[in-house]
Amino acid sequence: QVQLVESGGGLVQAGGSLRLSCAASGITFSIYNMGWYRQAPGKQRELVASITRGGEINYADSVKGRFTISRDNAKNTVYLQMNSLSAEDTAVYFCRADTRVVGNYVYWGQGTQVTVSS
Do 3 and 72 meet the contact criterion of CB atoms below 8 Å apart? Predict the structure, then answer.
């Protein structure tokens, strides 16, 4: 059974930091591209950051220079370090895993709430 479990969300003041974690189980983590997405109330889900199985990284323009994505294949975990948070970062953050190595598979976590108070 595949599980992606996000943690680390919460309430933080503007200018503060949070570190999200997504622990994966039931998959061969190293062959998966991993991504963080977010969805604010009334808005579509959007890509925040992604890291391929080869380590290539991509960020949304809105978070460049403030957020850092990383992965630890030994721990089957992907992280999102979020600094200089603002109210605009308030959203539910989701972890996503996808691969085309052994067929096309996409998995999502349940999400973790991040609320930034201004």
Answer: no
Q: In which region does residue 76 sit, left (phi positive, over 0), alpha (psi from -120 to 50) or beta (all else)?
A: left
**CA 102 to chain centroid:** 23
Helix or strand (DSSP H, E) at 49:
strand 46-51
With 0-12 / 13-18 / 19 or more C-beta atoms within 10 angstroms meaning exposed / middle / buried, residue 7 is middle
How many C-alpha atoms does 37 have within 13 Å on its Cβ side?
A: 16
The distance from CA 32 to its chain's CA centroid, rounded to whole angstroms, is: 14
Q: Region 20-40: what's the mean pLDDT?
A: 98
Residue keyed to tokens 């991504």 = 35
Q: How confident is the model at residue 102 (pLDDT cuts 50, 70, 90)?
A: confident
Distance CA 35, CA 50 (A): 4
- CA dist list (Å): 10 to 22, 61, 93, 116: 15, 23, 11, 8
